[in-house]
Amino acid sequence: MTANKKIVLIGTGSVGASYAFSVVNQNLCDELVMIDVNEAKVKADVADIQDGLPNFSTNVDVWQGSYFDCKDADIVCICAGVPQKVGQTRLELIDTNIQIAQYITEKVVQSGFTGIFIVASNPVDIVSYAVWKYSGFSKSRVIGSGTTLDTARLRYQLSRRLDLAPQDILANVFGEHGDSEFVPWSTVKIAGLNLLDVRERLQVTNEELEEIYEHTRDAAYQIIRAKGATYYGIAMALARITKAILKDEHAVLTTSTLLQGEYGQKDVFTSIPCVIGRNGVLETITPALTVNEINQFAYSTDILRKSNPLSVNSMKEVDE
């Protein structure tokens, strides 16, 4: 990491542009370089953000660049790809977005980039795997946004139901950022207390927990149906990951990472709690799960492996 913090954003669609806005508003970097195949669009996005800079206490330099500019970046955030349409699952985007990810990754690596990739393009678990594969980087330096957004949705829904601040709720969404994701309720803590132990006192029923899970899982479908895309929530999740890296927070976030034996799973990128800092994924955290939850996790990872054309579909040891 250099004293001058530099981010390169690739893909300035709704998600990318919202991420750029979040990064600038939170004053997370000194330089923000924006790249997109639609040069007129990225030029306009840059100008739009530059117009607002005098209204903030930030000296961030925002400009349109090229892949050459990735060379000395701390973070390259990939938001490029075909977006999810109404009625589509994220897994239906695989073939096209893997090809886009390969092209981008190879261009970035050719620049001499030695920083950390953050991947947001869907299906994010499989695209993150592709970026890791094509970059040749260690798994610690490729971070998928994973279920960071889903976890935020879960904590918000629980906070509304329990009338508590989200910060006092420890809950995570595990597995695929998609239809097979699940909530390991046995690990959820409310103000330090296990949710399942105090559920009756809080008057929370199993049916309500199931409704909260379903809302968390299906939120994107509802938003896409109403306005065509989701972008504010994921942009803020990406900014949160960015902050954890650039400020070396050692924050625990549910990001997508390459599993190397966690819960018996290998050769798959998926979300579990990860410690995120200056060098990317510093370690993974594996809270004890019930037998049913371990089976749910195995089901989710199996879907991702079988859907991933790059997966070796084996349990061989994967070296960093």
What is shown here, in short?
This protein is an alpha/beta fold. It has helices at residues 14-25, 39-52, 94-110, 124-135, 148-162, 195-202, 206-227, 232-246, 291-307; strands at residues 6-10, 31-35, 61-64, 75-78, 116-119, 142-144, 169-170, 189-190, 193-194, 251-260, 266-277, 280-284.
Secondary-structure topology with pairs:
Layout: E1 6-10, H1 14-25, E2 31-35, H2 39-52, E3 61-64, E4 75-78, H3 94-110, E5 116-119, H4 124-135, E6 142-144, H5 148-162, E7 169-170, E8 189-190, E9 193-194, H6 195-202, H7 206-227, H8 232-246, E10 251-260, E11 266-277, E12 280-284, H9 291-307
Parallel strand pairs: 1-2, 1-4, 2-3, 4-5, 5-6
Antiparallel strand pairs: 7-8, 8-9, 10-11, 11-12
3D structure, described in words:
- This protein has 320 residues and is α/β, with parallel strands linked by helices.
- The chain has two domains: 6-144, Rossmann fold, CATH 3.40.50; 148-307, Lactate dehydrogenase/glycoside hydrolase, family 4, C-terminal (L-2-Hydroxyisocaproate Dehydrogenase, Chain A, domain 2, Alpha-Beta Complex), CATH 3.90.110.10.
- Helices cover 41% and strands 18% of the residues.
- It has nine helices and twelve strands.
- The protein has helices at 14-25, 39-52, 94-110, 124-135, 148-162, 195-202, 206-227, 232-246, 291-307, and strands at 6-10, 31-35, 61-64, 75-78, 116-119, 142-144, 169-170, 189-190, 193-194, 251-260, 266-277, 280-284.
- A six-stranded parallel sheet has the order 3-2-1-4-5-6, with helices on both faces. Strands 7-8-9 form a three-stranded antiparallel sheet. Strands 10-11-12 form a three-stranded antiparallel sheet.
- Helix 1 (14-25) crosses helix 8 (232-246).
- It is globular and about 55 Å long.
- The two termini are 20 Å apart.
- Mean pLDDT is 93; it is low at 314-320.
